[in-house]
Amino acid sequence: MDSSKLGSVPEEEQHRKESNKPVVSAFASLPDRRPTKSSEKYSPLDWSGFFDREEDVCIPDSNDVFHLYMAGTEGPVVFCLHGGGYSGLSFALSASKIKEKARVVAMDLRGHGKSSTENDLDLSIETMCNDVFAVLKALYGDSPPAIVLVGHSMGGSVAVHIAAKKTLRSLAGLVVVDVVEGTAMASLVHMQKILSGRMQHFSSIEKAIPEFDAGTMMGGYDLVEYPLQMGRIKARIKGAIKISQINAAI
Are 157 and 177 in contact (CB under 8 A)? Predict the structure, then answer.
């Protein structure tokens, strides 16, 4: 019998069709994000709509000054540590809710936001842990209130290491967000390269905001603060101003 004249059975035909389909990986596509129109208008929001006050903490026997955003008057202190390339303003929306039942302190870590230190590029885990301890000491002395550490990404690594030291006796809780300890720690050594490769100037605040909206996976979220290049970028608007002072909302 000439097998070339025989037709294929339905099962074979179905298998042939399926085998010709391209294999689609779960990682082949990115999450949906809101399209950005070139004509879309952006404007900054002020931090005071979310926090109650800001404060600079000077560390004794050094030239280190750490900037804090604070909210609330009663209850435990939710002490927030942001991720690499962000600032304390990352927690603005959370602070506006948490302050109803607790106090919030969101710290600009070394080399970020409005904080200024003798060596902004020293982002070793030991140095950043010591920075947090120094700020807590300056705020509360030897009798700190109940503290809940909240850390995102790099800040999560710092929070975990602080908790592991077991020297913060008033530690009441630990929350880490989007952090893989090994990966986050390994990335710290690359932070200097990120700092040196950042954009330096924009013609206006409004033009700076969509630039970072397009460069992050956060499009479509109501964020008050975007990763504005470690808070060190300057926009030439009536002279040089720090974009760390801009609270960009989309």
Answer: no
The pTM for the full model equals: 0.67
Taking the C-alpha atoms of residue 73 and residue 48, their distance in angstroms, rounded to an integer, is 15
pLDDT (tens digit per residue) in 149-161: 999 988 999 999 9
- DSSP, res 99: T
pLDDT at 206 over 60: yes
Domain housing 97:
48-197
Q: Which of 152, 154, 155, 157 is nearest to 178 (CA)?
A: 152
Residue 181, phi then psi, degrees to nearest 5: -50, -50
Choose the final residue of a domain: 154, 182, 197: 197
CA distance 128 to 105: 16
Number of domain units in the chain: 2
104-116 residue pLDDT tens: 999 999 999 999 9
20: left (phi over 0), alpha (psi -120 to 50) or beta: alpha
